[in-house]
């Protein structure tokens, strides 16, 4: 009785649980439903060619990065000798050897964009001065030779064995092989990946995807680049540790002036991603939803679908 907002034009909403993606797309194409959830899979090209279905893309929130075991000695896979990825020249060589454009245009079907850091420009702490290293096989081979690996080395990369994760990992494997780095992929289940990589940190290299659910980069700072402790480094699976990065993180967590805090976060991220190459940022994946052609709505950055903003034409 006391509702003050404008009345929605849609009177009734039905939610249907259709687990099978093919059946869900068929229901949309036939007019049985108007909007369908869809996570990109091998059917994407067929969906694009369906004249009764329109693909709606959301801002890229899920980001994929490559992480390393940073321990020089006593590491998971190189317990009897020096760990190659503890050498910044090797990490930089790996960065230069990965052609992220091939990953985006291939497994991601163009629904992604290259990234240089943990989150996008809308997040507090983003540093516009951090740029991606160029794809450069010559530089990669030279750096490996300088580090003493002119003949390459063998290493295992842990990966979630599903969807375009597998395809992206296979391409990365092929690209690293060009510079002599021979990769074995594990393709783990989610439970196996969580236990091995996130909990036990028994990994040499790993491909991980995540979404930043906050507009403040302080949490990502604490998770990814502060040293592993009881309260920090939850996503620091390779034991990256830099005393200056830790000091900046502590200072930023106590700083009340927003501009000062912003500069602190930007500097800490610069040290970790530029000076130390603690991770290789790869790409940010766009979300997709399918709709009938007569449905109009504007994708929201928070991925919410608000019924009162949906229109039919």
In short:
The protein is 33% helix and 17% strand. The chain has 313 residues and is α+β, with helices and mostly antiparallel strands.
Structural notes for this entry:
- There is one protein chain.
- The protein is of the alpha+beta class and 313 residues long.
- It has 2 domains: 21-59 and 287-312, Periplasmic binding protein-like II (D-Maltodextrin-Binding Protein, domain 2, 3-Layer(aba) Sandwich), CATH 3.40.190.10; 63-285, Roll (Dipeptide-binding Protein, domain 3).
- Helices cover 33% and strands 17% of the residues.
- The chain has 10 helices and 11 strands.
- Strands 4-8-3-7-5-6 form a 6-stranded mixed sheet. Strands 1-9-2 form a 3-stranded antiparallel sheet, with helices on one face.
- Strand 5 (153-158), helix 6 and strand 6 form a beta-alpha-beta unit.
- Helix 3 packs antiparallel against helix 5 (137-146) and helix 9 packs antiparallel against helix 10 (258-275).
- The radius of gyration is 22 Å and the shape is globular.
- The two termini are 30 Å apart.
- The model has no long low-confidence stretch (mean pLDDT 92).
Major sheet strand order: 4-8-3-7-5-6
End-to-end separation? 30 Å
Could you name the CATH topology of the largest domain? Answer: Dipeptide-binding Protein, domain 3
Average pLDDT, all residues: 92
H/E element order: HEHEEHHEHEHEHEHHHEEEE
Report the biggest beta sheet as strand number plus sense, adding barrel if it closes.
6 strands, mixed
């Amino acid at each position: 009785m006391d509702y003050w907002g404008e009345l929605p034009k849609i009177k009734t909403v039905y939610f249907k649980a259709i687990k099978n993606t093919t059946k869900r797309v068929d229901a949309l194409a036939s007019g049985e439903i108007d909007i369908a959830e869809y996570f990109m899979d091998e059917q994407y090209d067929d969906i694009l060619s369906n004249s009764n279905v329109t693909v709606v893309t959301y801002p890229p929130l899920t980001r994929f990065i490559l992480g390393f075991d940073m321990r020089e000695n006593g590491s998971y896979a190189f317990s009897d000798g020096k760990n190659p990825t503890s050498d910044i020249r090797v990490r930089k060589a790996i960065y230069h050897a990965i052609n992220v454009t091939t990953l985006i245009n291939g497994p991601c079907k163009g629904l992604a964009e290259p990234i240089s850091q943990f989150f996008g420009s809308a997040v507090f702490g983003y540093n516009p001065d951090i740029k991606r290293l160029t794809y450069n096989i010559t530089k990669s081979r030279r750096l490996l030779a300088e580090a003493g690996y002119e003949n390459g080395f063998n290493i295992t990369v842990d990966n979630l064995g599903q969807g375009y994760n597998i395809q992206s990992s296979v391409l990365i494997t092929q690209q690293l092989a060009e510079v002599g780095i021979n990769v074995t992929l594990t393709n783990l289940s989610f439970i196996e990946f969580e236990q091995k990589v996130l909990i036990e940190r028994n990994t040499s290299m790993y491909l991980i995807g995540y979404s930043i659910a906050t507009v403040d980069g302080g949490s990502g700072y604490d998770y990814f680049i502060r040293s592993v402790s009881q309260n920090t480094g939850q996503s620091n699976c390779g034991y990256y540790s830099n005393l200056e990065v830790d000091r900046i993180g502590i200072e930023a967590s106590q700083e009340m002036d927003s501009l000062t805090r912003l500069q602190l976060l930007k500097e800490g991220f610069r040290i970790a991603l530029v000076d130390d190459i603690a991770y290789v940022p790869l790409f940010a994946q766009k979300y997709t939803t399918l709709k009938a052609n007569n449905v109009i709505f504007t994708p929201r950055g928070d991925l919410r679908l608000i019924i009162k903003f949906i229109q039919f034409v």
